């Protein structure tokens, strides 16, 4: 639905095409522009409910014989949505507390994932600074889970000093990371941290983002 309660174009299209939410069109646009998910990819989808990104991720893997997996996590219990096949599984867990080793164990041969997507967000309170801080907390968890503390510490933009190998990430080298954030100074810090540790980091505001929303996606390609 649109902000005014009137079904908008993306809502109607989602209904027509069998997507469980209009957010499907955000990942479809990311896929069209960046082609992050390929046949055989292993995808971790953080904050996956109600499952529209799971549907798009599964489609992007191509036919079942191409392989690949999609693991969705959300604090809410999520059923695997229609149009997904046996490569998709979901786990109900709080990403802020779930042990990273357990996440690694869900990846093929425990080697990590080739694509990590974070569309996580709290319900918006309307207090700009509070919403931005909560969004940054979830975004930082996604980044830390993906690349590990060592990579973040080695970024010239990190203030915490030396490397810390004790928290390795679950993103494979060469892999891609998408993080949803709310526009703020904190969001700009993410770009400063990510630019040196990925081959490319750029911002995207998908067309399906509601006009009233301050959400933006940081698209990080090629983990070094
Ligand atoms: C915008 S929705 C995601 C929509 C999803 N990408 C889709 O297309 O269906 C954001 C999700 O983040 C989840 N979330 C927020 N905080 C979380 C946390 N700490 N751990 C796991 N999921 C969380 C919420 O429960 C919510 O389902």
TrEMBL record:
Protein name: rRNA methyltransferase 2, mitochondrial
Any one biological process term the GO annotation gives: RNA methylation
Domain Ribosomal RNA methyltransferase FtsJ: 19-223
InterPro entries attached to this UniProt entry: RNA_methyltr_RlmE, RNA_MeTrfase_FtsJ_dom, rRNA-MeTfrase_E, SAM-dependent_MTases_sf
Region listing for Disordered, in residue ranges: 152-171
Protein family according to the UniProt entry: Belongs to the class I-like SAM-binding methyltransferase superfamily. RNA methyltransferase RlmE family.
Pfam families xref list: FtsJ (PF01728)
Catalytic center residues: 180 (proton acceptor)
Keyword terms of this UniProt record: Methyltransferase, rRNA processing, S-adenosyl-L-methionine, Transferase
Membrane-spanning residues: none
Listed GO MF terms: methyltransferase activity
Record keyword Signal present: no
Coiled coil: none
